[in-house]
Amino acid sequence: MDDTDELILELIKGNARMSYQELSKSLGMSRVATMKRVKKLEEAGIIRGYNTYIKRPGEVTMLIDVVTKPDRFDAVLEFVGTKTAFIRQIFTTTRENHLHAVAVSDSVRDLKYLAKMIAKKCSDDIVELKCHAVKEVIKDVYGGIRYEQDRRTDKHTEGTDAEQGS
Questions:
Q1: What is the pLDDT of residues 45-74, one digit of tens each?
Q2: Do 70 and 97 contact (CB within 8 A), yes or no?
Q3: Topology alike, domains 3-43 and 60-165
């Protein structure tokens, strides 16, 4: 990847619907050359897809952290990844046997139930389970939310965390 590829990624990060014409104008390149570069980034797996970010009123996001027993990681991943439509993303981290999942619903009750089901169904496989409701999104480059440096910090001192240990 070169500087032009990086610029393409930066431009489409906040607007995946940007046309090749707009993109090529911003890059100072022809539309065909721009299309070829984007296709190359797609084929290399750097651009994995284009998504529409939808935020519905009343939607609640919960962050779920699960640490599994060493030999039970795959079983827990299978359960968390396939048993509910609320899970939007799953990440592994540098922490050993750790999953970080993002769940979204319009019902806090559904998300609490999801956490209880993970704790119950995977109780013999989990070392630690922590769940936190997202209070406010401060920055999300994919959702068009920019960080404001003059934000008041006292807004972020309150909060409710639901923690469960196994």
A1: 999 887 776 677 889 999 999 999 999 999
A2: yes
A3: no
CB atoms within 10 A of CB 120: 9
pTM for this structure? 0.65
CATH code of domain 60-165: 3.30.70.920
CA dist 134 and 62 (Å) reads 6
Would you list the domain boundaries of the chain? 3-43, 60-165
Which of 124, 119, 133 shows the shortest CA–CA distance to 164? 119
CB atoms closer than 10 angstroms to residue 4: 14
pLDDT in tens, 84-141: 889 999 999 999 999 999 999 999 999 999 999 999 999 999 999 999 999 888 887 7
Domain 3-43 belongs to what topology? Arc Repressor Mutant, subunit A (1.10.10)
